[in-house]
Design a protein that fits this description.
The chain is α+β, with helices and mostly antiparallel strands. The protein is built from 3 helices and 3 strands. The longest helix is centred in the C-terminal third of the chain and has 11 residues.
């Protein structure tokens, strides 16, 4: 699978993902394992990161309009 990164996209480290989503580390990995959260990418060896656009898309999909 080829990853095309838009010019405004950037990688987020785990601490950034936790801050943006307000989820703890274990919740993020539980959701990934269940297929309910974007997977991370290996960057520079063992370092892992998420694409900001994928995390933002996940957040947008979770917004439930209030009536």
């Amino acid at each position: 699978m080829e990853i095309i990164q838009s010019p405004s996209d950037r990688f987020l480290r785990l601490r950034d993902v936790m801050e943006v989503t307000t989820l703890c580390r274990s919740s993020i990995y539980i959701l990934i394992k269940a297929g309910d959260f974007p997977s991370n990418y290996a960057i520079m060896g063992k370092r892992k990161a998420w694409l900001e656009s994928e995390v933002q898309a996940w957040l947008q999909a979770k917004i439930i309009p209030s009536n």
